[in-house]
Amino acid sequence: MSLPASSFPRAAALALALAAALAAPAAALAAPAPPAAAVNIAYEEFTLPNGLRVIVHTDRKAPIVAVNVWYHVGSKNEQPGRTGFAHLFEHLMFQGSENHRDEFFGPFELVGATDQNGTTNLDRTNYFQNVPTTALDMALWMESDRMGHLLGAIDQKTLDEQRGVVQNEKRQGENQPYGRRISARLYEALFPADHPYSWQTIGSMADLDAASLDDVKTWFRSWYGPNNAVLVLAGDIDAATAKEKALRYFGDIPATATLKDLPARIPKRARDTEESIPDRVPQARVYRAWPVAEFGAADGTDLELFAQVLGGSAASRLDERLVHRDRIADSASVSYNAAEIAGTLVVVANVKQGVEPAKVRAAIDEEIQRLIAQGPSAEELERAKTASRAEFVRGVERIGGFGGKSDVLARCAVFAGKPGCYRDDLAALDKASVASVQAAGRKWLGVGSHTIVVVPGDTPASALPETARAAPASRPAALPTPDPRFTTVKSDVDRSQGVPQTKTFPALKFPQRQSARLANGIEVVLVERHETPVVQVQMEFPGGFSADLGRKTGTASFAMAMLDEGAGDYGALQLSARKETLGAELSSGAALDSASVALSALSDKLEPSLDLLADVVRRPRFEAGEIERVRAQWLAGIKQEKARPQTAALRVLPPLLYGEGHAYAIPFTGSGTEASIAAIQREDLLRFHGDWLQPRRARVIVVGDTTLAQIVPLLERRFGDWKGAADAPAAPALATVARPKAPRVFLVDQPGAIQSNVYVGELTEPTGDKGAIDFDFANGVLGGEFSSRLNMNLREDKHWAYGAYSGSGSALGQRPWIARAAVQSDKTAESLAELKREIQAFSDGKRPILDAEVAKVRAANTLSLPGAYETNDAVLDQIGADLRYGRPADYILQYKARNEAMTPALAQAAAKTLDPAALTWVVVGDLSKIEQPVRALDLGEVKVIDNDGKPVR
Q1: CB 395 within 8 A of CB 55
Q2: Whole-model pTM?
């Protein structure tokens, strides 16, 4: 499933690039790991008579409970001819149940649930959400109703609807550079035709088309029972409460047949194979992959460490050789993917323009063989161990979501049979040696690899025919016999009464701020949090993308990216290695109105980590050789942005909205243009650094395991003597832009595209405007939530798109409101017509905003707040936004109060902010298919532009 990525205020993320542009400049880094001995997720477990395994972890730091259900059913349990069934059923299980005949998300939106989603992979299907503690009964009722009372709610209409949604999800993944068809070919080559990892989890179009109602119902009856599931409850709950509630809601659900565990099956390939695939991409890419050990295998941890040393970090072997020394690739990475019956180790390298892919492939092989022959150094191994522990601990700060504590416990229970298997993994990590890592590489990375070289061409890879493993099934599979070992218990839940209503909710308590100033005036804001031995520090400055006005476009982003490419006594590689040695994470970047450097440090390594922060902020090297290396990567990145339809749209739309000469009339990726980046000189970077990274402009936000008495002297010693230039420039004026006098339509050609990416926008008031909260609230009705009007129309009703959302983000100047949807090509014009109709009816009130819609958005915006600040990241982000936009310290309470006061009339008044007669449309798609139907809509003047925004016709 795909849900709107919400942050405070709750507005759908427009795309990764837009979110990055309009949010904080560098996301506060999550915590690296304390020593392995300090990592413990205490749990209790029990099994119901029907076989449902329940695992409970208590964590009282926030008044929320993570509800995480894993079904041990994935695409490996399918058969050729019935591929995609597990993922299709994941979608069907969000369509309501026999006792709740409506969207599954509805009751959760009314209680402010967060981190809610469902996913399917090779081996399992999971559903998860965080809910206020008082809403736990509702969540368990909903999960148990779809486990035990689903099939009566699935009819042909529902199947057809979700089949269409899934097929558009598939198209969306294929309509990208290096898209889904490439990974499909990789797995088809590595695994034989009868291996269950040889087909895509999303299935083939033919199998999805052929799936009948009887097929999918038989699939559910066969496997989706409590005996094939694990329920994890983590957070503000104890085992006694969990047992009473689990038995009450789930105990009467009968078992199905029990899925047999499949034995490990790792292909023994007799030779290396290779193929070349053309794609509409700006640069060649090399994939090199091997089938390797499965999840839980003795070699698994060693393979993970081998991958980390080889290509898992900026200081890895492949980065050092391919990116820094030989400079034949713009990037390189290695991943070990441990699935249940086989794993894969995959190397990916983006080939530098003008370099032969064969040269990159040869260098990759040389580095692999060198690592196998010599093993990692002791220092490399220790850095790799630190990185692995850090990744684990970054996840388990949270109770829910991917990598959170409930996720870890469920994964261990399903695949290893014991919820605490992560302890074995950490112990294996500690035990791993140079010799064991070397041996694992020697054992698995021999003959049997498959290499794909993706080469630039005129035909997109989406045009490749799908491999047919078997003809689509023509009759339902046989229904297996339910497992007789399990029984049910009577429940007193009267499901005819509907979903339990949540009457009370936790109170909002934002952590207390403390403040101080350094001798040179730098403001320091601290929130103490001592639950984990981690301190997060963010130093923020004005002067983001908007400071490029009068400079070369992209200077801000390029300069900030160069800060950690060598600073103080450290070159680029040495700086990366030093970060890993300290267990620290350090990043720098720019956003629309600000620039920042973020540090996450272990408490006992705080002082040397702050030394590194000071080097990056005050003493960046800007070495000529590193500038040229990063410039080449940057230019390749711009070409990649132009090749992706989403980022192509976000490059051309802002200049159309703001007009030439405005500080925001730039690609919202912040990357600039090829011409401007090619022209940037070292002096430009030094000037930006001197103008904008000034102590008088800086503020420091600290969240974590420290006190004001400790942190202020540490910051004082590193930054208190910092003095900036007196003649630093003022922030650019953000002129108010008039909206266009008529709608405009701009088309960008993407030959061969199987979807059209539709973006429509106009300018609204700045974040600091008194009406911003009201407008964002109203947008929640139109496109800010899963069940908002746009998504319910284009996805759930028409099933022409995988998702359709809208939102405004945040900005000091006028904000861009943008709605967007990736729609199937043959429904492009119809989708534009529907978007226009929805926006018009929203703005003029012909479809009035209803009490129920206001109640839903109010609940989503306010009831989620008590649990929204579970992590240090969330606290830091909120404080950063408040300071950036000049908000009072109690802004979050004001925001909550205004949302609680909203009425349909107030929301309808805010909806009038949008003027349908001033919309600007950008559509990226195959113009040979869509241009004439779009012109026939007569939405406004139509122009064809290229992906730089220049007129074509």
Answers
A1: no
A2: 0.92
